[in-house]
């Protein structure tokens, strides 16, 4: 499997939306309330791409995963019920989704390693993220990859678990 991680472009929107629709359906089938309110949607993807935040995981030329990456740009994180591990610059990721055809191959963890690489390349040692209380898959990934539970944040009126991982920057 030859994986690359690159910025998404307008030509990727259709396949990204397909991947996100699959993830939305998976959340629903698992009984999760996450992503069951019309978010994310194609306009969110377009906004991600327009702001240079959309990224795709590509296998042999085919888009197999999506996420949005932002630097110091998550207003909800300033109102955490709890405490972050750090107060400096951070990368935040949202909308992590892997194609239905590629589940169970460790690609979500691989995408997370690309996100860590993105942070290190930008000289940032903190990655912050959140997920729904009932997203067992993402909670397991956070646990496996050394993310620490920091408290709760609120998005669109819903409380979510917030996590942070501190990275070691290379000199």
Automatic annotation (TrEMBL):
It holds the Pfam family Acetyltransf_1. This is GNAT family N-acetyltransferase. The keyword Transferase applies. PANTHER family: N-ACETYLTRANSFERASE, UPF0039 PROTEIN C11D3.02C. The keyword Acyltransferase applies. It comes from the Bacteria. Gene3D superfamilies: 3.40.630.30. One of its GO terms (molecular function) is acyltransferase activity, transferring groups other than amino-acyl groups. Residues 3-170 form the N-acetyltransferase domain. Keywords: Acyltransferase, Transferase.
